[in-house]
Amino acid sequence: MTDDAVIVAQTTVDDEARATALARGAVEARLAACAHIDAPLTAVYRWQGAVETAREWRVSYKTTTARLPDLAAFVAREHPYDVPEWITLPVTGGSEAYLAWVAEETR
Predict the structure, then answer these.
(1) Phi and psi at residue 68, in whole multiples of 5°?
(2) Ramachandran assignment for 22, one of left (phi > 0), alpha (psi -120 to 50 degrees), beta (any other)
(3) DSSP per position, 49-64
(4) Residue 15: strand, helix, or coil
(5) Are 59 and 80 in contact (CB under 8 A)?
(6) What DSSP assignment string belongs to 22-45?
(7) pLDDT tens across 30-88, in order?
């Protein structure tokens, strides 16, 4: 994978304002070209021995492999959870113009 390969990285958070801050902070710092905040969703998960249900917002970042380590560090530092969701998905295709835009905006 090249440094300009596009990655989608995702996290969730339980507050819309925090989701916006995580998204905006990453884009302002050029850690991601853009970030999408999904409408609230219901998360069901096991935490400390109990099954929990929470309302969360998913933040999906479009970034490159070169910027991914810095984006991961930013989210780890700014995220309020003890163990935030952090998953990355390779982009295996797409509009050449869009993929080039992501690479350009994260330089």
Answers:
(1) -55, -45
(2) alpha
(3) TEEEEEEEEEEEEEEE
(4) coil
(5) no
(6) HHHHHHHTTS-SEEEEPPPEEEEE
(7) 999 999 999 999 999 999 999 999 999 999 999 999 999 999 999 999 999 999 999 99
Q: Which own/partner pairs from 21-26 qualify as long-range (CB within 8 Å, at least 24 positions apart)? A: 21/78, 22/59, 22/75, 22/78, 22/79, 23/59, 23/61, 25/74, 25/78, 26/61, 26/63, 26/71, 26/74, 26/75
pLDDT tens readout for residues 78-106? 999 999 999 999 999 999 999 999 999 99
57, HSE (Cβ side, Cα atoms, 13 Å): 18
User: Which letter does DSSP use for residue 83 in this model?
Assistant: S
Q: How far is 27 from 42, CA to CA, in rounded Å?
A: 26
Could you tell me if 71 and 34 are in contact, meaning their C-beta atoms sit under 8 angstroms apart? Answer: no
State how beta strands 50-64 and 6-13 pair: antiparallel
